[in-house]
Specification:
Layout: E1 5-10, E2 16-21, H1 27-37, H2 41-49, E3 53-55, E4 77-78, H3 79-83, E5 91-93, H4 96-100, E6 107-111, E7 117-121, E8 130-131, H5 132-136
Length: 143
């Protein structure tokens, strides 16, 4: 069963760009991958520029044969690049609050201008985004 999420970056003007991700959207899945492997704004922006993805992974570009049906281990699987789908481009939001108050799927992740990853669950009692480190350490529980 899929755990859907939106992954986003805050831009210099305060607006936000985001993409959809179909699999492993929970903090211990995509949250961990983002925190461990997407710490530079340039790499986060390169991820967002891929458009919507099926699955997140540590590596953005393949070094061998990679496709949607035959993905290379550890490489992001993107709908546009790897399956040729159209209409899967990144989405622009007016602000951070616009992003988090919109359809973040089950989880929303945002890389801030300060270089922190924030997370919000669409269904949990926590109404404000939380720094992902606090969730993964067990200090804060979203549910």
């Amino acid at each position: 069963m899929a755990t859907r999420s939106r992954i986003a970056i805050e831009l210099e003007d305060g607006s936000v760009e985001s993409i959809y991700c179909h699999w492993d959207g929970y903090p211990e899945g995509n949250g961990r991958v983002l925190l461990d492997h997407y710490t530079l704004p340039e790499k986060v922006q390169d991820l967002i520029n891929l458009g919507s993805i099926s699955s997140l992974a540590p590596i953005l570009e393949s070094t061998g044969k990679h496709s949607f049906d035959n993905p290379e281990p550890g490489v992001v699987v993107a709908y546009g690049r790897d399956r040729g789908e159209k209409g899967v481009d990144k989405i622009k939001h007016k602000s951070v609050s616009d992003f988090f108050n919109g359809d973040i799927e089950e989880y929303g992740y945002l890389f801030t201008q300060e270089g922190e990853w924030l997370c919000k669950s669409a269904y949990a009692g926590y109404k404000t985004p939380v720094v992902i480190d606090y969730i993964l350490s067990g200090e804060i529980k979203l549910s």
